[in-house]
Amino acid sequence: MPASSDRPPSTATGQAPSNLDPGSRGRTGLWLVGARGAISTCVAYGIAGIRHDLIPSVGLPSAYPPLSGLDLVSLDDFVLGGHDVCTRDLSASAGELVAAGILPADLVSMVRDDAARFEAAIRPGILDVAETGFRDLDPRAAALGSLAPAEQSAAIEADLVAFREEHDLDRVVVVYLASTEAAVARQEAWNSGPEFEKAVAAGVPQPASLLYAYAAIRTGSPFVNFTPSIGANVPALMEMAATLGVPIAGNDGKTGETLVKTALAPMFRARALQVLAWQGYNMLGNRDGEVLRNPSHKAAKLESKDAALRSILGGATGATDGPHTQVSIDYVPSLGDWKTAWDFIHFEGFLGAKMSMQFTWSGCDSALAAPLVIDLARFADLAARSGESGALTHLGCYFKSPLQSREHDFHRQMEALYAYAQKHTAR
Amino acid sequence: MPASSDRPPSTATGQAPSNLDPGSRGRTGLWLVGARGAISTCVAYGIAGIRHDLIPSVGLPSAYPPLSGLDLVSLDDFVLGGHDVCTRDLSASAGELVAAGILPADLVSMVRDDAARFEAAIRPGILDVAETGFRDLDPRAAALGSLAPAEQSAAIEADLVAFREEHDLDRVVVVYLASTEAAVARQEAWNSGPEFEKAVAAGVPQPASLLYAYAAIRTGSPFVNFTPSIGANVPALMEMAATLGVPIAGNDGKTGETLVKTALAPMFRARALQVLAWQGYNMLGNRDGEVLRNPSHKAAKLESKDAALRSILGGATGATDGPHTQVSIDYVPSLGDWKTAWDFIHFEGFLGAKMSMQFTWSGCDSALAAPLVIDLARFADLAARSGESGALTHLGCYFKSPLQSREHDFHRQMEALYAYAQKHTAR
Amino acid sequence: MPASSDRPPSTATGQAPSNLDPGSRGRTGLWLVGARGAISTCVAYGIAGIRHDLIPSVGLPSAYPPLSGLDLVSLDDFVLGGHDVCTRDLSASAGELVAAGILPADLVSMVRDDAARFEAAIRPGILDVAETGFRDLDPRAAALGSLAPAEQSAAIEADLVAFREEHDLDRVVVVYLASTEAAVARQEAWNSGPEFEKAVAAGVPQPASLLYAYAAIRTGSPFVNFTPSIGANVPALMEMAATLGVPIAGNDGKTGETLVKTALAPMFRARALQVLAWQGYNMLGNRDGEVLRNPSHKAAKLESKDAALRSILGGATGATDGPHTQVSIDYVPSLGDWKTAWDFIHFEGFLGAKMSMQFTWSGCDSALAAPLVIDLARFADLAARSGESGALTHLGCYFKSPLQSREHDFHRQMEALYAYAQKHTAR
Amino acid sequence: MPASSDRPPSTATGQAPSNLDPGSRGRTGLWLVGARGAISTCVAYGIAGIRHDLIPSVGLPSAYPPLSGLDLVSLDDFVLGGHDVCTRDLSASAGELVAAGILPADLVSMVRDDAARFEAAIRPGILDVAETGFRDLDPRAAALGSLAPAEQSAAIEADLVAFREEHDLDRVVVVYLASTEAAVARQEAWNSGPEFEKAVAAGVPQPASLLYAYAAIRTGSPFVNFTPSIGANVPALMEMAATLGVPIAGNDGKTGETLVKTALAPMFRARALQVLAWQGYNMLGNRDGEVLRNPSHKAAKLESKDAALRSILGGATGATDGPHTQVSIDYVPSLGDWKTAWDFIHFEGFLGAKMSMQFTWSGCDSALAAPLVIDLARFADLAARSGESGALTHLGCYFKSPLQSREHDFHRQMEALYAYAQKHTAR
């Protein structure tokens, strides 16, 4: 298969850093939290496959114009590592994905060495406070789980620093990919950096995603949260990221049904069609789906999925209230990683005519998510080299709940990214 | 139902015309070719309903921000007239639309006077050369059909001038809404204005839509072609429109399945997903569908529907050839005006994963088309007042085959319209 | 519109009753509980429309061969009455159904007299114990609600007897059509007739549907429960019905999604295809949907919808457990009476190939239910004339939870009904 | 994977043949015409997989009650052979099916020996007269193509006899699985056996499927036509089959969309719902689809798909004409063997309410067809042992155009098969 990518040349520029002049591209660590999950596995095998010219870059937006014109880190220069709480090794995950028809069997056998190097760099992670009954739990992760938050954070930081030093990396980008954590009440201490640090020191339990974000920021590592978990989305961490000059991005990768929703809804608004109801019914059968059987995890996920639509359509045609929207999720084990969603849109047009549209999306979640993770890591790296810090609002197109942005219209989000790319390419 | 429109104030500005300063808004004639068809009927009852505050402006984009901020002609200032080749009167068309659940019965009875005024201004039109076996054909239209092209064109011009004078109108906008005409071979004479005029004078038969465009342009009337028929889309007429300062717009209103396609396809391109196949299957049961049973009419329609997709997706991910696309149309009488389309999109993502999306669109064609016709008439009127002439490329979002434009991405088309609106509002 | 029915001749046979020789067909009362609801309104206008030859019998199975060959009561010989707890009159219900595009406006105006006669025979009913916050509640119904169960039952009986006597009816068939009542714990006393009568006498509160069934049986009136509420489905009432020679039928009309499920599932079984998952997502916007927002009502409904599938597919291909099935229902007000359901079927075939089927059902619930109510009343009347009593198992095809039957395969249910018809026709 | 089949015991009965007493089950040849096509490949690997207990019998109806109670030939006793016109070997076909996710890779490697034995028994076949431009054509098949019909038939017969003798088989069942041949005009000579034999002797060209049927019948081999090609469906061959005591079955396997149609349509009839339109849109990407690009082949296929619906629904509710039905087929290469069909059903119910149902069927054609081929071979063998001859009408459930039967209702067809099974089991 001929690689259709349009990768930037690998000669580094060597110029002094400035806003539009990213510093020298060296080797960048890509640290995946949830390193043996389906998405991380696809990231690892995908990067290896492209490196060895075994697969094309289809599905990877940063490999095509206009984004490929940017001075992004080459896939050749990524070094992978990560945290996980399970003991099964990467090849077990890969085997599952081969059986599910997602990873090609020959790819897995041809990049065995790359996978082994990644596997060697996976360290035991910390469990989310609410996580229970996990299969094949790593006893070292369980041990970390009983430590105080400050000790947990310190352990993560130590792993990140050790990884950077061992591989002589210019920087490490942390991407959070662990399963959705339980919805938690906001803590007062999350509103300011010093208060938060006090709470951590005092042993107040914190969600795992928040501790990961904290550790990443403290070590100067750009942090990307691809899940609906809270991550860096609290004022305390936003503040620290700005102060320490660390770029952050999130939350919740926009991979499937929500992507389609935010690409379609603007059409109804543009045509002044009044959406009466937009109902979404999702089925998924992977670990993510299993975790969502827990109602408190489900609540976090659904909130994230529903907001975008209200934001795009709310009051579009003068109706005082927005459309009736509901999102349901059911766990259907036989589907595995092949998520299937059905959406029904009931709308009114001219003369009161009531019409409808319905769509079924059958997508492979991991294959959709993995290239976005790679893109985000490349963009976070570019931002760090360019001296950007805090929430990277030009990356809104990648997320269901973009940090510090109310724009959910996918096309406007893409225009914003293209405008950013043009500014950075025009130098 | 409260009218949710945001209509511009009806005080005219009275300033001298300039590019960004449209002249005084007076009374504008809206001349509908195919005046008793379903779309025209919805246009007439819709305008009357909004005027009398009986229906909201839902579905009419020009009634909402940002377009409502423009100095568009008020719906109160439209005077309706048109051509048709049938004898049945407007109330028969309205009755059919009530039975089909499209026009509300009470609206029809409450605006009877407005409908009667429109009916009084409908004149016999000319038949397309290929048209045969039409039911309830107006014998006067049949008589016109036997005249030479120059006489036909002169008859149309006379009707347009008489309408303008009788109602003391500032200008007449002609919107072509007749059934799709048969595909015809391009004539050499269409390439230049003088050659075309010679051919008409010499009696070379011309498609009806072309004669209508010719007559409109000669009388200085903006011409909008909402059908896939050829209309003004030949160099000869483009040239005349530019020379005589007449704005033109077309072809083929983007109301349903193609609208969705061009709103969705950019999402696949933006995510670097490779569309392998995009198949569309359309069912329609109205007169348009009946005409499409004639294979030569169908060919014209399908060509128009298929091009947009190739333009948006062609070569997006480096594939040498674009996606496999096909559009089928079947006539299903029981559906009447409720067009139903099913689209299937087969696509490849990262790691070669093959995924699919499918959607069903159930829309009422006339209720979708009518407000776009009103918008187009308002924009064509604004363009004429602003001294614009030739193809109005900022109106691409309204058409399947926008004149002199290769942009089919619906969102980019909307951005172009909004940019135009901003320029005109900012004065 | 030509009536396409095949109605039995109206000459009564006058022979002595025997199992296969129903007694003289006289006038039969059709007593609708929930008399002003959407289904009852469609029953009333539908019967009137067919009587006056204004509509065809489409949708009414008993009007076509082979069922039309039976000696069923003529629609001309039905006299309508019923109970309701609301004050709004029938014409208000009819108006809503006209607005929703279900009842034709001209039909409503042409059978005004028939509707008025039905309206005059509607009496205040009793509320279900759990019913609260009902709009336009009839104060007389509210007063009945505060009485002891024995008094409530006596009031219903008095209404039934008065109706029979006033109109000189041979018998009254009671059809229960009230909104789904809350799920209730089974009472020990429901297991035997005498115990149940003791409980009623002692003032133990009973679900409304059960009291209606009790009153019907005590007055010798055949009882049909078209809802998922409990009705006569307790041993105590089954026993009384057998003892008193009263035919009963139920529960829960099989009108839409479940009908399709039970018609399709046998195909998978016949082909030895292993259904892995069958997920159903339902949207409805009528009063029924509103009531279902109450979780305890929803539970009763879902249980009824899910059992059929397990019964048909359970263990079909040797799998130890049946397929993964789930049914979800959401309330979508804009849909009104137009119920829309999406079902997804994931199945495995030969060589382990995983395939899928999905369907969308868009049906008008009342228009689907009303003719089945008429059929059931005709069959219950025939059974009474034929001396049949207890659960009418040949009517299983009409119900989601057929009384005393485990057969859910729609085609086998139809074969059973046709066999019954053949036996009764062959005389 | 545990085999869930319920295979009959392998002890032969050894009794004298009689109608309900099939003769001794010995070894049966299964001769597949189109031996290297996708269906044959699935048949071969499927039989081998079940023999070696590597796959369950899911999808194979004859492996489950009540059919498993019959004295059918054991899969262990089948010996495979066949004809093909291509040179590529079976493992190439198997490789394609593995890549398409249909055949499990490990199954293919584990039954390599069985596949090699089958491969060794494949002989060059004859081309259909209209076949042109075939890839990887076997030169021996091309040579056979230039012979006279009588010589072609003799060559086939010789292959069948040699296969039977070489493997010491009790009988050979021929299953015709070659690609759909071009529609041809009926020949007068097809109406009688002697006339047909004269025409063959005189060198009148004949469709390949007809010559295969002729050869099979002449050698006393039961003949099953799983394709829409003509096969034995002419009076001349019917007559010979009856005279020579040869069972025949066909035409056109009912595997996917038509299966669903004939399972669903009876539901509409049973509920007296008037189907206004039933539109089917099919996409397929395998060799079958490629052949269908040829319009004359497509015509044969579509006729076969459309008749069933008319037969089940025609005049059901007194409408003088049946529903409006259309079937479209498009070739979509990216889908490969995964056929996807969308059906739209527009129907009218009580009170004139217009409703709709739509379904999407995504099935793997070969995996659906292969087990039916095995079933048919077992039933044809049982029929031969039981002394049955001519069209086996109890096998109608397997075909789109069952020979000598007008019953298309899938459920009634199943009842007929179950009745046959009961009669044969009851001995």
From TrEMBL, chains A, B, C, D:
Domain Myo-inositol-1-phosphate synthase GAPDH-like: 256-366
InterPro entries associated with the record: Myo-inos-1-P_Synthase, Myo-inos-1-P_Synthase_GAPDH, NAD(P)-bd_dom_sf
This enzyme's EC code(s): 5.5.1.4
Isomerase keyword on record: yes
Gene3D superfamilies, per the entry: Dihydrodipicolinate Reductase, domain 2, NAD(P)-binding Rossmann-like Domain
Ranges where the record places region Disordered: 1-23
Gene Ontology molecular function terms on file: inositol-3-phosphate synthase activity
Highest taxon of the lineage: Bacteria
Pfam families on file: Inos-1-P_synth, NAD_binding_5
Biological processes annotated in GO: inositol biosynthetic process; phospholipid biosynthetic process
Family (UniProt): Belongs to the myo-inositol 1-phosphate synthase family.
Protein name: Inositol-3-phosphate synthase
